[in-house]
Amino acid sequence: MRIKSVRFNFIMNFMLTVSQFLFPLITFPYVSRVLKPAGTGSVAFATSVITYFTMFEMLGVPTYGVRACARVREDKEKLSKTVQELLLINVVLMIFCYIVFGLALVFVKEFREDRMLLLISSVSILLNVIGVNWLYSALEQYSYITAATLAFKMLSIVLMFTFVRTPKDYVIYGGITVFASAGSYVLNFIRLRQFVSLKRTGNYDFKRHMRPILIFFALSVATTVYTNLDTVMLKFMKTSTDVGYYDAAVKVKNILVSLVTSLGTVLLPRLSFYIESGKTKEFRAMIAKAVNFVLLLSFPLTIYFAFYARESILLLSGSAYMGSVLPMRVITPTVIMIGLSNVLGIQVLVPTGKENMVVISVAVGAIVDLVLNTIYIPKYGATGAAIGTLAAEIVVLIIQVVYLRKMLWKMKGEFHWKQIGAAVIVSAAVIWAVRNYLAFESVFITLVVSAVIYFGVYGAILIAVKEPFVMDIVRPVVNRIKR
Question: How many other CB atoms are there within 10 angstroms of residue 390's CB atom?
Fold first, then answer.
């Protein structure tokens, strides 16, 4: 099986990330104005609830499966056996989750209020199992993943503008959301036979998977708790409108996080392969690139969107969502923490078999999030939830940095934080100085002009100081132009 280069996989995954950026940019301004905060809040609540059921049925397989399959991808028989075992584990758990979900619909009052929305959203419980997305990631099939995902997202945009017309259509929007995010998983299952055999090969050995799966499950539980707990607690402690405000802020944050972590997504299978092959030099070089990539993107994005939170919310959601501005400013710095902890945790600790440390860091973060949510959500609503999330991400990153401090200290010369920091400070000072002159009547024009100035200055400084990561991108382009 031909494996593409990291650069090609990154380009494919970056295209996929950009689509995740464009999809809400196209759809959410329309949806938020049609459905209002209460409608978008209901869909966000349903999505969060189903995420918990999906988490339990997948039991850590999405991350463990990438590593396990990447290590045996050169042997079709071993790969087939691994896929069959993991798929059967997920199927059994899926059945159990659907039973619990059915009982919850009957006995939980908040679930009964949005029964139809939750039923439609629950289709993703099935799709996540049959989609075996972890296998396609392990095989680095990013061109297929990108093409399939883009096709379903484009079709979902057409469906949304066709069928979502009134506030009552929030249930339809919930169904379209499932179609956009997990519809391609049907194609994944159909294409499965191209890569593995589904015929039983020898005796199954489920036991060998259980310990790592449970560790990754613990990681998934902790992560899902503090990434979805805010929405659920807001629904129970405040109102759907508060959930809508918070959801609008989180959507912007998630777009930025997707951009910042886009390189890391394609690195896990390659890094796992390096560790299995004993290529420690290549492993460290790839980690240094990943950290520099995160620093390069996360710092300027955080500063810019903290400055222009109000304009971003107005463009994406409209004036009805002004309650989202402060939560967005509070939660935006998590882009930096999530980007770095994604590299340190998922790209360093997981491939080296130290995922238990990731679990500990995320579990502590989840506890911090729970405690602070309990204190601040009743007082400050969506802003209180943002405070909890920010504190949780800071704690997660600190614990991982402390654990990896020896390795990071040895690699300190490979991180380009001085050049990046200087560029961010200067570009931030420029945009702050000219901000009053950029208040155009059109919010869109304000954002475009300010972004061109801010990121133009930032990029120019990085080129001027010859920042290595940027120069690796610029030099081939310049050489091609000269030819």
Answer: 18
Residues 6+ apart with CB under 8 A from 355: 63, 212, 215, 216, 219, 349
* Number of Cβ within a 10 Å radius of residue 302: 21
Structural contact between residues 233 and 375, judged by C-beta atoms closer than 8 angstroms? no
Same domain, 112 and 26: yes
Strand, coil or helix: 133: helix
Whole-number Å distance between alpha carbons of 293 and 470: 9
Segments forming the whole domain that contains residue 475 = 416-483
**What's the whole-number mean pLDDT along residues 114-125?**
91
Burial, 165: exposed, middle or buried (Cβ in 10 Å; 0-12, 13-18, 19+)? exposed
1 part of a folded domain: no
Nearest residue to 424 via CA among 311, 298, 252: 298
* Judgement on whether residues 187 and 101 belong to the same structural domain of the protein: yes
| Nearest one of 425, 424, 431 to 450, comparing CA atoms | 431
132 with 102, same domain? yes
Record the tokens describing residue 190, joined without a space: 């159909």
**Residue 166 gets which letter from DSSP?**
S
In three state form, how does the secondary structure of 373-439 look? HHHHHHHHCHHHHHHHHHHHHHHHHHHHHHHCHHHHHHCHHHCCHHHHHHHHHHHHHHHHHHHHHHC
Single-letter code of the amino acid located at 90: N
- Last residue of a domain, which of 382, 415, 448? 415
pLDDT at 391: 94
pLDDT digits (tens, 9 = 90+) for 342-378: 888 877 887 777 778 888 888 898 889 889 999 999 9
Q: What is the pLDDT of residues 389-430, one digit of tens each?
A: 999 999 999 999 999 888 888 888 888 888 889 999 999 999
Q: How many CA atoms lie within 13 A of 208 on its CB side?
A: 9
- The number of domains in the chain is 2
Tokens of 446: 């304000």
Pick the last residue of a domain from 415, 441, 465: 415
Same domain membership, residue 361 and residue 425: no
CA dihedral defined by 291, 294, 299, 304, rounded to 10 degrees?
170
| Whole-number Å distance between alpha carbons of 145 and 166 | 33
Distances (CA, A) of 274 to 36, 88, 136: 49, 28, 18
Tell me the three state secondary structure of residue 440: coil
Task: Give the chain's end-to-end CA distance (angstroms, integer).
Answer: 34
Average pLDDT over residues 43-52: 86
